[in-house]
Amino acid sequence: MKEVSVAVVGATGAVGNEMVKVLEERRFPVNELRLLASKRSVGKKISFNGNEVKVEELTEDSFKGVQISLFSAGASVSKKFAPIAAKSGCVVIDNSSAFRMEADIPLVVPEVNPHAIAQYKNRGIIANPNCSTIQMVVALKPIHDVSKIKRVVVATYQAVSGTGKKAIEELSSQTQAIFNFKDIVCNVYPHQIAFNCLPHIDVFLENGYTREEMKMYYETKKIMEDEDIEVTATCVRVPVFYGHSEAINIELEKKLTADEVRKILSNAPGVKVVDNPDNNEYPLAIYAAGRDEVFVGRIREDVSKENCIEMWVVSDNIRKGAALNAVQIAEVLLERYL
Ligand code: A2P
Questions:
Q1: Which residues of 14-46 are buried (b: 16+ CB within 10 A; e: fewer)?
Q2: What is the pTM of this model?
Q3: 181: alpha, beta or left, given left = phi > 0 and alpha = psi -120 to 50?
Q4: So what's the pLDDT on residue 312?
């Protein structure tokens, strides 16, 4: 593959850092890596392929000569700088929610809709979906291809790393404070996250759902290219550092047995079935952390309703849920289009 110049925007953050690691691990053909963050981080160094690369301040001139930019510095940074980057000729793969639902911007999970990457030509931007949606659609699509999914009911158990580095520190410092009989401090979340579960991710909307829950609703339809799939989600932040877990109930048009679903998922790209309850084997966040796959287990037929399947889906939210998915998009982009 030919070598390209790559920029990572938000390189000092939880996802940006992982993007650099994934580029290195997957030997993405980089001839120059530009690491961009806020003024606060200028002078910091991040190691890449054995070299220490200096972090630079993100400015309007940062993208000259860059071919692919991976953005993960929040929606407001993306809204301002992604169009500037695209205008200067590079393709932006944006991890924020800024452009995901815009009709002419592709929203891509390479195992599900890689063909949509071709639409990067519209505006020079490809959106990386929300972390909880990515792992869910990787597990849903192969089933949907065999028996159409009518409705999905999902409850998520989401790790604090999805909120960024400050949230990782908050869970850690609150846990230490509690064990040392000190007062806890809440800066990132509105309530204590240590030893607690918060049914509140992103802001509340008029319909009573949170924006995170509605992201799962809208993004699933867009990525699966099927407006008829209904989705209802309850998104919960839990005191886990890495790895989102999801309890998913799917209603199918035609019945599939649990064994059939297990077989379909065993052959699906990016999925690993871990489903051996007799040996206490099922997907766990602590084992998914640092891994690339979407792990699926506890597959069973719903006793309460015909043609419904229950399953438990776990993946590393920083990797497949963000950094890895973005780099996989970049790989397809480079191989097929640049
Ligand atoms: P910095 O470390 O300089 O603040 P996380 O999601 O883990 O909190 O990380 C957010 C990332 O986005 C960090 O790399 C952060 O850089 C970067 N970032 C936040 N605001 C800006 C900004 N206005 N300009 C450039 N980078 C930003």
A1: bbbbbbbbbbeeeebebeebbbbbeeebeeeeb
A2: 0.97
A3: left
A4: 99
- Residues with CB under 6 Å of ligand 1 are 10-14, 16, 37-38, 40-41, 58, 73-74, 77, 164-166
Please give the average per-residue pLDDT across 72-100, as a whole number. Answer: 98
Active-site pick, 131, 144, 235, 308: 131
- Residue 120 to residues 115, 116, 140: CA-CA distances in angstroms? 10, 8, 25
- 21, 68, 140 from 25: Cα distances, Å: 6, 18, 27
| Residue labelled with tokens 């940006």 | 16
Q: Whose CA is nearest to atom 4 of ligand 1?
A: 38
Q: Quote helix, strand, coil % in the chain, to nearest 5.
A: 35, 25, 40
Residues 256-289 pLDDT 10s: 999 999 999 999 999 999 999 999 999 999 999 9
Mutate to test the pocket of ligand 1, among 35, 53, 77 (most ligand atoms within 8 A of CB): 77
**pLDDT interval class at 1 (50, 70, 90):** confident
Tokens coding 321: 């849920």
Model confidence band, residue 126 (pLDDT cutoffs 50, 70, 90): very high
Neighbouring residues of 232: CB distance < 8 A, sequence distance ≥ 6 = 151, 152, 153, 154, 213, 217
pLDDT single digits (tens) 180-209: 999 999 999 999 999 999 999 999 999 999
Let me know if 244 is a catalytic residue. yes
Q: Which helix (H) or strand (E) holds 309?
A: strand 308-315
